[in-house]
Amino acid sequence: MAQFKHDHVHLRSPDPESTAQYYEKMFGAEVIRSTQADGSSRVDLNLGGLSVFIALVRDGQAAPPPTPPYLGLEHLGLSVSGIDAAVAELKAKGAEFTMEPTTVRPGVRIAFLRGPQNVSIELVDRSAA
Questions:
Q1: Average pLDDT for the chain
Q2: What is the pLDDT of residue 47?
Q3: What is the pLDDT of residue 68?
Q4: Contact assessment for residue 31 and residue 43, using Cβ atoms and an 8 Å cutoff
Q5: Which of 13, 76, 87, 119 has a C-alpha 20 to 30 A away from that of 54?
Q6: Does residue 68 fall inside a structural domain?
Q7: Are 105 and 74 in contact (CB under 8 A)?
Q8: 54 pairs with which residues across the strands?
Q9: What is the dihedral of CA 19, 96, 30, 65, to 10 degrees?
């Protein structure tokens, strides 16, 4: 069988620069700016080792984001140690949480926040006491 590994996540945004700045501010993502072969600018991220491509979408070119739960890719999950402190730090930066830290099973706590374009982002602490 062929071997597969992740390559990237692709986001669409009416303002890729603003979206990239959010991930940089909230999660310390590295913003990578480049120029496409056609001369257009491109904004990507290194988000904890995950490549995130952010493509420009002009008004009227995309459907509104769905309301969970829905079929298909539902959220982006990021691991963190010390979820309660991480949530407090993100709230101080202006993050909007849709689910406060919750223990889902012994040793595992999760929380959800809303990112740009209504992207749902899960924080997972698998070493919670």
A1: 92
A2: 96
A3: 77
A4: yes
A5: 87
A6: no
A7: no
A8: 11, 43
A9: -40
CATH number, domain of 81, equals 3.10.180.10
pLDDT band at 94 (very low <50, low <70, confident <90, very high): very high
Domain check: are 89 and 115 in the same one? Answer: yes
Cα–Cα distances (Å) from 66 to 58, 80, 117, 118, in that order, read 18, 26, 10, 8
Stated length of the chain: 129
Residues 7, 18, 97, 106: what is their CA dihedral angle, to the nearest 10 degrees? Answer: 20
Phi, psi of 25 (to 5 degrees): -65, -50
Name the pLDDT band for 116 (thresholds 50, 70, 90). Answer: very high
Tens-place pLDDT, residues 99-110: 999 999 999 999
Chain position carrying tokens 């590295």: 30
Q: Which domain holds residue 126?
A: 74-129
Enumerate residues 6+ apart whose C-beta is below 8 A from 47. Answer: 23, 27, 29, 30, 78
Q: Tokens for 55? A: 């493509």
